[in-house]
Amino acid sequence: MAVQPDSVNDDTPGPGPGPSPGDPGPAGLPGVTSAILDVAFSDASGREWTGPAHVVDFGGPGGPSDLSGRDKPASEWERKSDVPVLLAIHGLGGSHVNWLALAPLVTDRVRLIAVDLVGHGLSARNGRPADLEAHRDLVAAVVRKLDLGPVTLVGNSMGGMVSVMVAAGHPEMVDGLVLVDPALPFDRFGLVHPRILANFLLCAVPFVGETFLTQRRRWLTPEQTVRRVLTTCCVDMGRVPSDVVAAHVALTARIDRAEGDDAYLRSARSLSLNLALPAGSQAALDRLGGKGVAGDPPGVPVLLLQGDSDLLVPLAATAKVAEDHPAWTFAVAEDVGHVPMLEVPEWTAAQILSWLDTNQENLSAALRPPSSPEG
User: Are 4 and 225 contacting, i.e. CB atoms less than 8 angstroms apart?
Assistant: First the structure.
């Protein structure tokens, strides 16, 4: 979700990077646990980066896991072989709260975990890069840190591209993808809201983007910020549950605004460059397979979801991706915008659960009970 990290005036002190290990999780969310994990990854030059990754366990069959202070593999999770683990990855400027409406609709069947990307939500940037590659590496580091095994990545918007990059670079970690209005490379254009184009153009220019976001922080309260973004991302923001909207407002007021702006700009510029020069991301897409042509790899199962009235990722672009990958499952939500998991969570949950049932035989053996030996 393209939630901009605007907040209150700059002279209001921020609360810091988020909860310390042992904190039960985001305030007022029953049945949810979260933790700040220390993770490390190396960039293309070989430089190692370390810093926090905020992870939220929304629960699953048997309840949420104990993530508090987790600095070792999650062996005590006692993961059931027949319970899928979904790792949710938000979009540009988003966070774990983007999945609040979906969580209660799926956690009786699957375990849903969400991660805040570098500089987003409660994952402080800590001097790390906040480009697509860093987001990819942070997600992979979290999978390793928690010993999750192969997971199904659920990515919205920029998180969809990050999910593709993780699957292409670390195929052993991923047994399926759910891409929700993903920001993928495309060669077919559709209607993009003029305000969206203006925002990306402003953010693309050094110093101009920084000035623009600094001024907007002074103009908008946290509630105004969230409502402004949801109005753009949804056909009808009134469909988003009021408690979920309130959670977005509370987090917007809580985060370090200057750091959030910096991470947003770095991520937006990386995403824009990725879409303008798509060779690398197109290669990642190609490694997923699913094109149904001779010599094409079998590919990872993919569910592609799209709102037909999305003003950020046009339906025409996503439909072309689906056309190029006939082995993927493609579903369109009518009269829905950029964030179906917030605007129509029931529809989104039904699509995901149905797809998991249909693709059970194609998912990793880690998600299925071991077969009994014959004889």
Answer: yes
